[in-house]
Amino acid sequence: xxxxxxxxVSATPLLGDTIGAxxxxxxxxxxxxxxxxxxxxxxxxxxxxxxxxxxxxxxGLRGLGVVKGDRVGIxxxxxxxxxxxxxxxxxxxxxLVNINPAYRVHELEFVLNQAGVRTLVSAKAFRTSDYxxxxxEVRPACDALRDVVLIGGPEWDAxxxxxxxxxPSALIEIGRTLSTDDPxxxxxxxxxxxxPKGATLSHHNILxxxxxxxxxxxxxxEDRVCVxxxxxxxxxxxxxxxxxxxxxxxxxxxxxxxxxxxxxxxVAAERCTSLYGVPTMFIAVLGDxxxxxxxxxxxxxxxxxxxxxxxxxxxxxxxRLGMSEVxxxxxxxxxxxxxxxxxxxxxLDRRVSTVGTVLPHLEVKVIDPATGVTVPRGEPGExxxxxxxxxxxxxxxxxxxxxxxxxxxxxxTGDLAVMDDDGYVTITGRIKDMVIRGGENIYPREIxxxxxxxxxxxxxxxxxxxxEKYGEELMAWVxxxxxxxxxxxxxxxxxxxxxxxxxxxxxYVHVVDExxxxxxxxxxxxxxxxxxxxILGLDESATDA
Length: 545
What we know:
Mean pLDDT: 94
Distance between the termini: 39 Å
Radius of gyration: 23 Å
CATH class of the domain at 17-28 and 44-179: Alpha Beta
CATH topology of the domain at 17-28 and 44-179: Rossmann fold
Helix content: 25-40%
Low-confidence stretches: none
């Protein structure tokens, strides 16, 4: 009997650099190559210019009094300044606090206070949010906050100019005081219950994770990586920015927030070789009218993550976008984020039915959540991972850290998984998402994958809702193709009967134009369940009977 355990053997050693030192090494090797392109503004940076601007921002922040260990917040959509602040804070040893662009006043106040943010760099506004006004509203309640720098405003210009007049040798001296194990980043995990937790990550955590994700994508200085996913999340700033700069590749920002047409135009104009997104983003890109008129022939790879990829979507990504080497990644913020990844040579089936195999230098296992014992391969259990990528902890929350990371430094993800005989991992859902109907354990992903085969269904999500008789019943939320007739529960039952076990057939159907999503593109099933209870007029206490 082989147990569900695997370790990532690699001849390539872990990086021992800080983020700043690693960037300096890349700049020395590729000074004239493109480092960053922001297509919306037309601004471009070679590695040499990018390094100069990073140093100017770092010295400007130092002039405000920012020192090693201070928390510097960044609240903005994707823009060049976000990336400059990311690397500038790393050079100072300051801790970058990523703030979700969708946050409202009470969430902003919580994060600023929980992290003790000293300096906040922010956009003036984004979409319908007046960031400047929101900051002024919460500022009296944020005792640690001393300086606010608005991107594009006089404060930003003054910061950069003061930095340009500073002494660059000061950064060399600061660099000598930094350790790769220093905390460098706090990312707040989406709080489905209560306030979010601040996953605290080190240089070693995120630099190595970005580097090895890039290694498995085959990146080098010729690559150009289109990053429409948000920088505030690991997908953007680690798998995107750090994967690129650790290999001398170029980051292309297509728009401040995801826009399918702008993404396609950026890929074509900049001859991007790699494109990132969650499945819903790729569905939008594939459905955009601009697709057929653009030359995307430079594309070869990319990353799809965040949620399972439907088979038909993956086929189109490979055939219509030319991304023959596209990878599936799985992970979480607390693990920097990636733990498993498919490889370029993996089959289509591997890329749609699994999340790949363990990353180099990491360990993974699947355990019985009740006993903690590793289960045999082929049996479901909770996915756990250990290694350089596991966070330092939740910022100033040791009790919540201990709930997630055990004494042996295994991160307990809360995800249900199965490992096959070849070490490939399939994520079957969240432990909390698993539906128990009349004693039957039901994994929503299996049903969702089946529903993608319906000719009128573009996307589907399945949740459990309260039921007096069975404890829980299944409800399918579906998005239909344009022009499709309405879909009833009876229609869906007819489609499923004889092809799915009777207890897996959704009792309820809810047709929507879009699902409740986090800013990173993950479906909020907790919110869907809450809405479903209201829509159906159900008794939430039924499952407690």
